[in-house]
Amino acid sequence: MSPAATPPTGIYSGDVDCSGEATPVSAVDSLKVLRFVAGLPVSQHEPCTDIGEMAEWGWKMGDVGCSGTVNSVDALKILRYTALLPVGLPDGCPRIGVAPLANATRVGDLLGESLVPVVTYMFPQDGDSLAEPPPVLQLCFAVPVNNRDLDKGGDFRFRLITPDDRSVGMRIVFQSDGYGVYIEQSLKGTSYDGEWTFEWRVTDFVTLEPKEGVVTFAVDPGGRAVLEDPPPPCLNPQGIRPGDLNCDGAISAVDSLAALRFVADLPAMIQNEP
């Protein structure tokens, strides 16, 4: 792997045609990478480094996975990015869709605070008073977190502690898109009044930078009721469910058809804007 280096200001990783529009990285860039792989001509907004040529930031244009070559895997990574799905990248590889600073020398310089996962929703919250122990705890994040299994590169830790300092058994379920996790605890139907503690740790999907915290909440008969229904899934910041390509609020065969039409270079299906 080459030393981490970055595109100049204004160039987004994955923007292989240098469109620089409001949404510079789109499915069009994925298609253009596929056309390059197939040996077909590719149009770009000049001046723009040709796909496959070494760019001034140290990687070949279109090599979004920083593998040293441009292939269909890069096209897939761009397509996953546009569908708001997690994209695995090696250390030192700029995140797709990021416009790095001209003099940045490492991923930390590119992403700043976004290196660390940001919690957008948590239940229970610190200081909550609940009528009974919550059957499910939930965290939502602004960007995908590392949801790999622990034996496959995952790095997370959750611990729920009762008022008498006992650790509670848990079932941990990450969303496939990395935007959320819910934790089912095993003491359902059992009341332990007093102060509970929830310890958590997750890492960023790309950079593996950690974020951890401690939440304390009370269980008291006079506290607010706890819903028994499973919590709804966490949404990404745009409010779009990953895979919902036509933005109709559901993931269905229609989305698969939309993806197939794109790959076949057919006119896009009508979407629910924006």
Descriptive overview:
There is one protein chain. This protein is of the alpha+beta class and 274 residues long. It has four helices and eight strands. The protein has helices at 27-37, 72-82, 107-111, 253-263, and strands spanning 119-123, 129-130, 136-141, 157-161, 170-174, 180-185, 194-203, 210-219. A four-stranded antiparallel beta sheet has the order 1-3-6-5, with no helix packed on it. A four-stranded mixed beta sheet has the order 2-8-7-4, with no helix packed on it.
Poorly predicted residue ranges: 1-10, 100-114
Number of strands: 8
Radius of gyration: 22 Å
SS field, number of helical segments:
4
Share of helical residues: 10-25%
Q: Could you give the distance between the termini?
A: 38 Å
Beta content: 15-25%
The averaged pLDDT comes out at: 77
Describe the sheet with the most strands. Answer: 4 strands, antiparallel
From the spread of the alpha carbons, the general shape counts as: elongated
Oligomer: single chain
- SSE pattern, N- to C-terminal: HHHEEEEEEEEH
Structural class by helix and strand composition: alpha+beta
- Strand neighbour order, sheet with most strands: 1-3-6-5
Domain module count: 3
Keywords:
single chain; 274 residues; alpha+beta; Immunoglobulin-like; 3 domains; four-stranded antiparallel beta sheet; four-stranded mixed beta sheet; 18% strand; elongated; disordered N terminus
How would you concisely characterize the structure shown here?
The protein is an alpha+beta fold.
